Amino acid sequence: MLSFDGTFLFYFSKKVCEEMKVFVMNKKRAVSYLALIFCAVCILTIGTLQSADVWNDGGDKLLPIYSVEKGNEKVCALTFDAAWDDADTDVLINILKKYNVPATFFMVGSWVEKYPESVKKFHDAGHEIMNHSDTHPHIDQLSDTKIKEEISKCNDKIENLTGTRPILFRGPYGEYNNAVIKEAQNQSMFVLQWDVDSLDWKNLSAADITARVTNRVKPGSVMLFHNGAKNTPEALPQVIEKLQADGFTFVKASDLIYKDNYTIDHSGKQILN
């Protein structure tokens, strides 16, 4: 395939100008030269745009999982980030038990240290405990060594209490970069985000939380809630009842995702190959 660049265009234009000095230009010859110059410019421009498209499509950028392709299978995952107090631990456990719904709790290491009994309660109730960093930093701004420590220390604390080492990681504030994803992979973990944000941390009303979530959930969706959010305990039963009435089944996040033989598209959707 021929490659056209600025050097070629300059050379081509120079040759055209030289020939224009040698030959007496008539209208037909002038039109022909202009057409050739126009074609060369178009080829150069298209090549540049195609290169930009490849970069914008991701290039070497790694993506976490935001949702999972499930076709028409109405399954979804209910997840909570635990970084505040533990005042609603028993309330959440009782609601989830009433509707027989498993959930995934992403816990900060410092929260695990501060509220070990709550960690055990969630785990003993059948919910899974996953990693939300050790100190809740802006993890995408840390060195590789610090990223490793944030993930491994939280894993150690959770495993010491529950006997199970987390396989899912979610960065604080939903932040990530290639270094974060690679380190999680090095520790045999998947980085999981969400595609449905309840915005419960903004203290939306229970009705607003319910409408926001239930209108957005699709097969393979991952919902984000927070323990300690003001109106989540009131909204949660309404969310569960509406989704169950619509035919959705709740599964743990680790059961929602594919563990191998998959790709992640530009939107963060995990697709089974």
Write up what this structure looks like.
With 273 residues, this protein is an alpha/beta fold. Helices cover 47% and strands 15% of the residues. It has ten helices and eleven strands. The chain has helices at 6-22, 27-56, 89-98, 109-114, 116-124, 144-162, 178-186, 206-214, 232-245, 253-256, and strands at residues 67-68, 75-82, 104-107, 128-131, 168-169, 190-191, 196-197, 221-226, 249-251, 262-264, 269-272. The strands form three sheets. Strands 2, 3, 4, 7, 8 and 9 form a six-stranded parallel β-sheet that branches. It has a three-stranded mixed β-sheet with strand order 1-11-10, with no helix packed on it. β7 (196-197), α8 and β8 (221-226) form a beta-alpha-beta unit. α8 runs parallel beside α9. The longest helix has 30 residues, at 27-56. It starts with 5 loop residues before the first helix and ends with a strand. The relative contact order is 0.16.
How much helical structure, as a percent, in the residues? Answer: 40-55%
The description of the largest β-sheet is:
6 strands, parallel
Structural class: alpha/beta
Order of helices and strands: HHEEHEHHEHEHEEHEHEHEE
Counted beta strands: 11
Total count of helical runs of at least 4 residues: 10
The average pLDDT score comes to: 85
